[in-house]
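Input set for joint prediction.
Command: fold jointly, output tokens.
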Amino acid sequence: MSIILGPNRYGKAETRLVRVVRDGATHHIKDLNVSTSLSGDMEAVHLTGDNAAVLPTDTQKNTVYALARKHGVDQIEDFAAVLAGHFTGSQPSIHHARVEIEEYAWDRVPVSPHSFVRAGGEVRTCVVHHDRDGRATVVSGLKDLVLLNTTGSEFHDFIVDEYTTLRPTTDRILATAVTARWRHRGDTPSYGTSYERVRRSLVEAFAGTYSLSLQQTLYAMGERVLATCPEICEVRLAMPNRHHFPVDLSPFGMDNDNEVFYAADRPYGLIEGSVLREDAPDAAFAWE
Amino acid sequence: MSIILGPNRYGKAETRLVRVVRDGATHHIKDLNVSTSLSGDMEAVHLTGDNAAVLPTDTQKNTVYALARKHGVDQIEDFAAVLAGHFTGSQPSIHHARVEIEEYAWDRVPVSPHSFVRAGGEVRTCVVHHDRDGRATVVSGLKDLVLLNTTGSEFHDFIVDEYTTLRPTTDRILATAVTARWRHRGDTPSYGTSYERVRRSLVEAFAGTYSLSLQQTLYAMGERVLATCPEICEVRLAMPNRHHFPVDLSPFGMDNDNEVFYAADRPYGLIEGSVLREDAPDAAFAWE
Amino acid sequence: MSIILGPNRYGKAETRLVRVVRDGATHHIKDLNVSTSLSGDMEAVHLTGDNAAVLPTDTQKNTVYALARKHGVDQIEDFAAVLAGHFTGSQPSIHHARVEIEEYAWDRVPVSPHSFVRAGGEVRTCVVHHDRDGRATVVSGLKDLVLLNTTGSEFHDFIVDEYTTLRPTTDRILATAVTARWRHRGDTPSYGTSYERVRRSLVEAFAGTYSLSLQQTLYAMGERVLATCPEICEVRLAMPNRHHFPVDLSPFGMDNDNEVFYAADRPYGLIEGSVLREDAPDAAFAWE
Amino acid sequence: MSIILGPNRYGKAETRLVRVVRDGATHHIKDLNVSTSLSGDMEAVHLTGDNAAVLPTDTQKNTVYALARKHGVDQIEDFAAVLAGHFTGSQPSIHHARVEIEEYAWDRVPVSPHSFVRAGGEVRTCVVHHDRDGRATVVSGLKDLVLLNTTGSEFHDFIVDEYTTLRPTTDRILATAVTARWRHRGDTPSYGTSYERVRRSLVEAFAGTYSLSLQQTLYAMGERVLATCPEICEVRLAMPNRHHFPVDLSPFGMDNDNEVFYAADRPYGLIEGSVLREDAPDAAFAWE
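tokens >
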């Protein structure tokens, strides 16, 4: 019996970085959560504890702060690429770098040029990979985008088997918390512009699709992104069905014409799917 | 040795209610989390398990849904009063009702009259008490209002003892997640208008106060609410100091003029205080 | 209109302390989360930002670590008293100190004298107050003690009103996550011994009470603590009813004799109550 | 430009099932969280909303409860296989089923044959895949197994670059919250026995390895599992480094010989790796 080391990586997760730019009295902030992960020539450290090939995770954290100072932070995809390129270029033992960033949005408070209120709503995300052969992938995304239609959603003519009790419906609330990730085809000129366009496509396709199933809505959302964003070649969506059940008020002599709902926590439907261009380039390690 | 029953209450916590109003094609939603709690003549149930005085928590849940259907839901304070009044009026064994509501905000999606995106940001809250003698109190509030000033905050000339290592600073980030509750003096004509005014006062006082301590900022926020909102007689604030520490970049030959910060999780300062009118009426059970 | 400062306090929350004692090869650990909160002569800092009376929260954190080094940590109530006494004795502006501690339990790994596995289960807690006049209170407690009886629980003969749909039952699962706090009458010789006795009393009273309502079970638990622990004068309990609903399997031609349950999240019943000795001394600020 | 549907699946997540077996007065419980996910002939539902191939997620939930009643629940891997086999065998449109289960442990309360206390500690997990061609994979696992060594851990002789400030150490706390998953080679006779053996191997290898890096410890843990459990062919581990930093007490004139630590939350090191047999069979879809 021979035991071997399989795929592995290591890094510093959740380095919380707030970057301020002071433009006179007017300040700008970026609020990020950065996770770096490296892999490469790591047999020795696993088998014998020899750390000669290991760039400490503490150093990775320092690098996040130092490069934020040196290069500034604008779009998270660009900052992730700076970090990933730095790591793969810095040490021969590091063959591959993965950088994942979450960005939390803030709104300005009108009365002050240096005051902000956390925006809530969705979190913007990205995952950037670089390897030392110069291959790079960029996946952008968002999570916790919570959407709800109060009507325009049906669900019927599904399979009915011995364990089916669900009644068909021609009018229901459809609600979900979208996690979306989208792969860039190549060099995207502006990640900020692209993000706004993708987000708007997702929201508008959700709102504008008359839905016979959450799967149909999911596909329509992915398709809309690809139709409006030539820079994107693949979209992956995970959409929990946040069930809103009409409450049976008949015991109290009341009707309930889809006015009073119970918002359930668990269990929940979970729909996952990807939509892509037929000619999308190979994904390589983009989704890892 | 004689053992006795002390203060007690029971109820249904976290009944999740979504109320839709269908105004033709245009829909409106209210998204609430309702907790009811009753007390009164409850010796027997504790001592012997005799449930003759107990309105089941399941019934309390049903009542939330039924009264939402019957009366609709506009301002949460008004709906809480409907519920509290119902409970104290319905059973002789129920002497007191406490109703707590959280409201989650949604924004409209422009392209559709029945589509919404969860707003994130702060959660609006209220706690309403009624007793069967007709006494009533109303406390409104919010939580998770995250505010940050990138400058305009100092902290120095504090006590220095044998365990003090903190250096004084004349320029720091000040950030907090505000939990605020405010007590209404009497009948407030419009809880919606009042809420907007209080929230704006809190945000603007935070942004507009040149701060020498978070305590000073807290007091300024409470004072601003009382100065602008005659309907409020007391404000209670809990404000964690979400520390943002400048990263020491000098080992890398870099300065850091308050541009790169580490946002820390724990531990955190926690400042709690109340600001009130000298002639505020007795709070009775308002804060319980 | 005169606006004044009401009750206030400030401190450092959630200082995470792990204290190791090295007894040769055999090590011992204490894993704590310490929150300190001070109050006193704090008008100036709120009104003008004058920090002359303020012992920084950063210093409070340092003090936790320094006194853990100096005095060691055995029972959390004793360590909390050391901290509270230190703060009230150290500065004339500090009139009152509140120290809250959570303790996380670890089990030893048999094969090594310095290896541990986190125990899970309940968290031990305490809140200790000292004021500069020498008054002191000690409340011990626990949270997240999850208990379940698969039978021996009934619920019927409750009030039935127009909104009641619940059916009476003579056999149900009773489950809860206990939060308990208990007040010591005076000087308790051993907080460790006392804790074990209280915890056992709570668990055994829950398991041993044939229950007609969760209120009855709650009272029995408090009464058992007072009956077995002379050092305790009051017990406060908060017990969510973690509903387990039998699944209706009749559509599938199956019976369900309390064998298959759905464990619900929200809403949940919430029963809160206190049980005390008739001659319990005044609680002062113990529960704050 | 042609847009197509990529990989997709749908199901019911987090069906909370508590299964009681009544063996006279002695009761047994299983407390599970079951997530099912199906895939197959799902083009139509995505493209047109035609649900003819869709077994509703509500039916999947019902099936979990019905088969728990019919077959009972012993080892979670066996119950997952019952479910997965049911789904792939029931409908021609369902080509593949993935069943994920979490199990929460309970201990008996000594005084009663039907009373239990939630054990805390790690959660047992499994993921079972079946496809309609009869291929099946079984991955078992655990999460939230929190381990700590107070000594026997060094970290030095790592790469030092321009951003490195970490000092080498020859004695530190090593702590982690293990997420482990292990793949079964074929038919494992008893998943319960196997689980106990794997868990013990993980804990004992963590405790017994004198560690020069967390990677070394991770590999030793995986290797120990394979060495002691012939039924396992691959182990995947994710181990956050829960940093415990010695507090610098020198400003207070105190030394700190690894006695007083600050337990940090974020950022944290994250070490991920797999250890496998060289002759491990192809994993197919096991890890998805």
